[in-house]
């Protein structure tokens, strides 16, 4: 316990210590024990100066209530302990009290109805709104826009709807009216004066739309207006205003939202979708018919109904000034202004989707001013973007035509509005329909005979670029890069290159002017252009993983047109004597061998185009690809200069090594397949003994793999021919008479006996289907040229039968 003997100075110091520690219960006991020293004003100053701001208000609200009512009682559970001040003298305690510098209460016991509250009355509405919303939308947590609605409801609402503050505004308004009775004023001015605080909030929202449109969009989506306030546990959390005030604030809020949509200055699809979200939110709050999304509206192209007097040139001034003014017809919260805003949003979306960047405010100026020159410039920019579209997509061109015509009239031709139905009123309304149709047709016709080519972003190719370019043939390479699969039209590009030569674009003088060429020089330049174009097409096909096309260009095109890489031949030293003629400089083909080398270096991937047919090539794709690469490298060896031969030979050697490896693997796989197909693995057969089986297989495979000389091949062919002729004589004997009716049986018995007695019977038993076909072919060949091999003549049936019986 602090005890009654505690001096006033030490009691004050102890109260300061307890307030600093936020020990409210002990402080309450101390105040009850020393109520004369710690009176109400002193305690409030101590709390104001030393109580931490992080303490929750629920912990000290009860203390303040007891302090105001005078019912503070001492709690025996929390006694005040003054042991920390026991050793301090009274003089030292008084010195420390004088150095406390407690904050003063500006208005110690201000009544609730006092009109001069110093805390808020001296703070104007603009400063209050800016202070309360100074950090709104600027959090660093990644959810900056999620707190906008929370701050508008929880900070602005309670501050604006303070009981005395709202009442004082009404009193202030009445006093101003009494002072200016003689001056007639509009009711809207009175309403704006009465709601000057909310006007600052609306101004803040529109300012955010120009700076950070995401904050403005989230403010409109998360906040329903001045009626949406979070007062916490005070009352029911809902502020009930006068009907006139409520309607006025709702109209002002809707006007601020529409103005925010016009003020979004970012030229992107995302920002445009944000403006559409604002429009959808306002339509919902105003209970209007919902509009389709921008994507759906651009696909439907629904007609825009009558806009009345909104489409007027004088209203264009409202796009720049006084967007929140009640006289601004464009931001007025009604059905006509919302319909106009939606039409401008769809028009802007169509332009940006095509490639021409535009803002909502700029689209509004085109629609309101109806300046033919500005609209013509906009159409030109649109056509420049459209020309780069797909060339063979009919649906694309139909859609583009419908969209451009809708931008002109906003679908007026679909409405029954009399003679004015065909009058343009959109962002291209001043242009005639004939002009737009003509531009579309011209672009469509040009697009069918040209390729896409862009030097800089947003700047299409112009014909003058060919004349000023230092190497016009290199432009063909850019065309191949920007147009996929265009390398297949190699004849068109060769013709382009040769036309450049004929136009005199490749030969220039020192000053840069076109230099005429004679017939030989023109043919040489055309040949160079063809070689360069073929090399460019080979490189382009390799970039797009079409090796088959590159290979065909190398073995067909380059073989016919390419020449060896040659340098300028030096002039002889005795040129002045006249004994030697000047050797003309030879052109250097430095493109063909490089293209062939690049084709030879190409390796198959999963993205490589598969061949359409194999022809006589190997069925193994790796072996076939390596063989094609070696052909390309061989072509490069024929064309390349001597200095580059080692590099090409190294690549060729690596291809050979890979080819040998794959061929060896294929042979091993074939041998394994042959072993799997032997009679030993035939289903339904009798299994032989292991030793005999291995010996038979080894002998058969040894006989197959033994090399044959030409003499051995001739003897084998003669033997097969004899067997064929003998079999033929047997079949011929069947039809000779009744005396030979046993010949087939005798032959069959002879065959059966020979099948058992012949030493190589096992080899014949295991003969494969492929070997049978080969033997039949060789036998037929031997029978046809048997007279060259001294084959015996065909014997009669009897001699043939004796021969068969006499065989071992």
UniProtKB/TrEMBL annotation:
Q: Which GO terms describe its biological process?
A: protein transport; retrograde vesicle-mediated transport, Golgi to endoplasmic reticulum
A Pfam family hit: Sec39
Q: Which domain of life is it from?
A: Eukaryota
Q: Where is this region: Disordered?
A: 732-771, 788-808
Q: Which GO terms describe its cellular component?
A: endoplasmic reticulum
Q: Where is the Sec39 domain?
A: 12-119, 120-449, 450-673
User: Where is it localised?
Assistant: Endoplasmic reticulum
> Which keywords label this protein?
Endoplasmic reticulum, Protein transport, Transport
Q: What is this protein called?
A: Sec39 domain-containing protein
Q: State the organism of origin.
A: Lachnellula willkommii
Which lineage do the record's taxonomy fields give for this organism?
Eukaryota, Fungi, Dikarya, Ascomycota, Pezizomycotina
């Amino acid at each position: 316990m602090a005890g009654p003997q505690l001096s006033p100075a030490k009691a004050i110091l102890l109260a300061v210590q307890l307030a600093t520690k936020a020990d409210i219960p002990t402080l309450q006991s101390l105040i009850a024990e020393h109520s004369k020293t710690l009176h109400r004003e002193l305690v409030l100053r101590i709390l104001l100066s030393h109580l931490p701001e992080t303490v929750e208000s629920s912990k000290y609200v009860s203390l303040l209530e007891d302090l105001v009512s005078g019912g503070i009682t001492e709690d025996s559970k929390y006694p005040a302990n003054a042991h920390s001040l026991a050793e301090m003298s009274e003089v030292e305690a008084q010195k420390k009290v004088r150095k406390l510098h407690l904050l003063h209460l500006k208005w110690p016991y201000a009544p609730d109805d006092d009109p001069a509250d110093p805390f808020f009355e001296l703070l104007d509405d603009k400063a209050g709104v800016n202070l309360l919303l100074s950090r709104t939308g600027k959090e660093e947590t990644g959810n900056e826009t999620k707190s906008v609605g929370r701050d508008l409801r929880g900070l602005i609402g309670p501050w604006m709807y303070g009981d005395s503050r709202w009442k004082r505004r009404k009193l202030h308004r009445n006093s101003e009216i009494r002072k200016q009775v003689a001056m007639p004023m509009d009711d809207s001015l009175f309403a704006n004066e009465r709601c000057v605080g909310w006007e600052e909030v609306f101004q803040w929202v529109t300012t955010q739309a120009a700076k950070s449109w995401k904050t403005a969009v989230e403010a409109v989506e998360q906040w329903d207006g001045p009626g949406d306030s979070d007062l916490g546990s005070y009352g029911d959390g809902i502020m009930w205003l006068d009907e006139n005030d409520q309607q006025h604030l709702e109209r002002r809020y809707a006007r601020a939202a529409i103005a925010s949509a016009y003020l979004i200055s970012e030229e992107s699809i995302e920002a445009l979708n944000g403006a559409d979200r604002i429009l959808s939110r306002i339509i919902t709050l105003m209970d209007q018919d919902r509009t389709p999304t921008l994507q759906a509206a651009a696909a439907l192209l629904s007609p825009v109904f009558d806009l009345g007097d909104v489409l007027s040139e004088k209203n264009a001034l409202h796009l720049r000034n006084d967007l929140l003014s009640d006289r601004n017809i464009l931001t007025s919260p009604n059905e006509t202004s919302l319909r106009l805003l939606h039409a401008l949003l769809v028009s802007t979306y169509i332009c940006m989707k095509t490639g021409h960047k535009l803002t909502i405010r700029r689209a509004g100026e085109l629609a309101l001013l109806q300046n033919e020159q500005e609209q013509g410039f906009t159409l030109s920019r649109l056509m420049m973007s459209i020309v780069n579209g797909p060339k063979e997509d009919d649906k694309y061109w139909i859609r583009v035509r419908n969209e451009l015509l809708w931008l002109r009239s906003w679908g007026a031709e679909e409405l029954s509005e009399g003679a004015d139905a065909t009058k343009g009123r959109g962002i291209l309304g001043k242009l005639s329909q004939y002009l737009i149709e003509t531009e579309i047709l011209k672009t469509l016709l040009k697009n069918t005979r040209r390729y896409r080519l862009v030097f800089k972003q947003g700047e299409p190719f112009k014909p003058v670029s060919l004349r000023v370019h230092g190497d016009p043939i290199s432009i063909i390479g850019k065309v191949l890069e920007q147009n996929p699969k265009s390398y297949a039209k190699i004849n068109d590009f060769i013709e382009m290159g040769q036309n450049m030569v004929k136009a005199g674009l490749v030969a220039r003088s020192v000053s840069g002017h076109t230099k005429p060429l004679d017939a030989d020089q023109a043919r040489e330049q055309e040949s160079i252009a063809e070689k360069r174009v073929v090399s460019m097409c080979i490189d382009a096909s390799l970039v797009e993983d079409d090796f088959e096309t590159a290979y065909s260009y190398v073995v067909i095109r380059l073989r016919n047109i390419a020449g060896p890489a040659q340098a300028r031949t030096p002039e002889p030293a005795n040129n002045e004597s006249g004994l030697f003629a000047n050797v003309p400089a030879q052109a250097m083909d430095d493109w063909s061998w490089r293209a062939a080398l690049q084709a030879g270096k190409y390796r198959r991937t999963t993205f490589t185009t598969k061949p359409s047919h194999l022809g006589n090539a190997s069925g193994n794709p790796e072996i076939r690809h390596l063989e094609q690469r070696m052909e390309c490298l061989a072509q490069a060896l024929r064309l390349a200069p001597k200095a580059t031969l080692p590099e090409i030979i190294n690549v060729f050697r690596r291809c050979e090594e890979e080819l040998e490896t794959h061929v060896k693997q294929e042979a091993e796989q074939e041998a394994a397949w042959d072993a799997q197909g032997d009679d030993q693995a035939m289903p339904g057969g009798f299994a032989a003994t292991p030793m005999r089986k291995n010996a038979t297989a080894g002998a058969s495979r040894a006989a197959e793999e033994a090399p044959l000389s030409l003499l051995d091949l001739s003897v084998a062919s003669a033997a097969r021919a004899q067997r064929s002729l003998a079999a033929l004589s047997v079949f011929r004997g069947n039809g000779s008479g009744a005396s030979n009716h046993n010949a087939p049986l005798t032959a069959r018995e002879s065959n059966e006996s020979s099948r058992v007695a012949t030493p190589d019977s096992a080899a014949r038993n295991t003969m494969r289907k492929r070997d049978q076909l080969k033997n039949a072919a060789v036998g037929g060949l031997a029978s046809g040229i048997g007279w060259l091999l001294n084959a015996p003549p065909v014997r009669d049936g009897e001699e043939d039968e004796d021969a068969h019986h006499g065989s071992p």
